[in-house]
Amino acid sequence: MTTILALVKQNDALSHLQQELPTDVRLLTADKMTASALSQIDIIYGWNQMGQQILALPDHQVKWIQTISAGVDALPLAQLQQEHILLANTSGIHAESIAESVLGMLLMHVRGLQQSAVQQTKAQWQKPEHHRLTTLKDKNLLIYGTGHIGQRIAELATAVGMHVSGVNRSGHAAPYFAATYTMTTAPRALAQTDVIVNVMPLTASTQHFF
């Protein structure tokens, strides 16, 4: 019997997984876990403090951790490597939501929407200073990171008329980017850039880059 521990909130995907599992695989959720069952977990789906608690057990039998995030820097990577535990992420799964959030933040900035929202909570209205309002059209956007998330941001930004360039390690071309640069050649684009977006993965080389 293979035992999976789901450290995620109950949702449609989890319900579907429960229905599709073969009979020799059981799925447990965090709210149904007992102390004695912790050492019987073979696969962890998601990650939180309970996962760390399981890995601290001397007799744990975890063989695979499947995260629901692209980044895995919060996990004990050295321990996983030492104990030969398979680690899989979900690169690209959040591209749509993050890209829409980025576009929303850009619109909020150029259209003065944050000021309007604050005034709304106070039941006040003051005309915005029109010389401070602008549009995204024809603005230059430079995205550090041209993977799934960066590409979706570039696609949406291009659709509203922005000129989009990207930065990656080799400077290789990527969909929806008019031009791409390496880390060392990117400064030539910075002088003309109106907006910088950072979606680089967190690694030793990118931490505190900005």
Automatic annotation (TrEMBL):
Gene3D superfamilies with a match to the protein in the record: NAD(P)-binding Rossmann-like Domain
SUPFAM superfamilies: Formate/glycerate dehydrogenase catalytic domain-like, NAD(P)-binding Rossmann-fold domains
Positions of the D-isomer specific 2-hydroxyacid dehydrogenase NAD-binding domain: 103-210
Keywords assigned: NAD, Oxidoreductase
Pfam families the record matches: 2-Hacid_dh_C (PF02826)
Signal peptide segment: none
Cell cycle in keyword set: no
Keyword Nuclease part of the UniProt annotation: no
Entries under InterPro entries matching the protein: D-isomer_DH_NAD-bd (IPR006140), NAD(P)-bd_dom_sf (IPR036291)
Protein's name in the database: NAD(P)-dependent oxidoreductase
